[in-house]
Amino acid sequence: MEQATFLDNALELLSHASNAEDNHDYTEAYAQYMAALDYLMAAQQYEKDEKSRAFLKEKADEYLNRAEAIRQQVHVDVHRLPDMAADVDGTNKGHTTAQSVILDEAFKCAKRAIDADASHNYTEAYKQYMKSMDHFMFAQRYGHDEQSRSLIRSEVAEYLSRAEIIKKHLDSLNESRAADNANLSKGPPRPPEVVFLHTAIEITQLAIQQDVKKYYRSAYELYNGAFDYFMLAHKYEKNEQTRTTIRASMEEYLTRAEALKKFIR
């Protein structure tokens, strides 16, 4: 849905609100004002021009104040109001809800992230994962039922865990390049097994933090991400004692990851 469509929907709902207010149907007027605010805020989110954004914010504040005045005046029971963009009798006028539009954009960004991830374009993948999470978090504010909010939180946790793995990988590569450039005249660059092991340990620390907080899906993804780097470190490591230590760590965290499966099904 284009930004102009958000405005069209907002204007239509504001017209309904004004008519309802003229007819002294304040419950419907409040519902329509609040529905219009959803679209005004969504339009503001996607507006590029700073002056237009300021204008939309000003209008949103104006109608929010009007809606609050109605609520306080007639004691509207907000828990009995319809879902946004729906009439107070429970029917829908054909609007696509702001939440569904924002979620659609979130999943589009997530798909672009996954495609970039699969192509090993990690910089773009990280950028798209973070954009998708911005959209998911923005959509969550519109989730009126706990089930939809829980689903969004699950998506955020999944993509966040992958984004954190990618960020650690990118940071590690950047640190390695910086160290190599700084030490170019002092000796050879850090061997790959050191870089991979360092990254594996950092990701494992993140996994443990998520595990302790009982964010099991995120912890599971991070443990598996760390496992990949342990495998690479093991591949390039020549010292047998170090290889044994790496294998032990791999077995420990893989066992924990397997144990977490029962919590995320």
Structure notes:
The structure is a single chain. The longest helix has 37 residues, at 146-182. It is built from nine helices and no strands. The protein folds into two domains: 3-96, Methane Monooxygenase Hydroxylase, Chain G, domain 1 (Up-down Bundle); 148-264, Phosphotransferase system, lactose/cellobiose-type IIA subunit (Methane Monooxygenase Hydroxylase, Chain G, domain 1), CATH 1.20.58. With 265 residues, it is mainly alpha-helical.
Tell me the overall shape. elongated
End-to-end separation in angstroms reads 33 Å
CATH superfamily of the largest domain: Phosphotransferase system, lactose/cellobiose-type IIA subunit
How many strand elements?
A: 0
Subunit organisation of the chains: single chain
Strand content: under 5%
Domain MIT: 3-78, 99-175, 193-265
Protein name: MIT domain-containing protein
Pfam family, one: MIT
Coiled coil: 46-73
Question: How would you summarize this macromolecular structure in one to three sentences?
Answer:
This protein is mostly helical. It contains nine helices and no strands.
Give descriptors for this structure.
single chain; 265 residues; mainly alpha; Methane Monooxygenase Hydroxylase, Chain G, domain 1; 2 domains; 0% strand
List the SSEs and their pairings.
Elements: H1 3-22, H2 26-46, H3 50-74, H4 98-118, H5 122-140, H6 146-182, H7 192-212, H8 216-236, H9 240-264
Helix pairs in contact: 1-2, 2-3, 4-5, 5-6, 6-7, 6-8, 7-8, 8-9
Coiled coil: 46-73
Keywords: Coiled coil
Protein name: MIT domain-containing protein
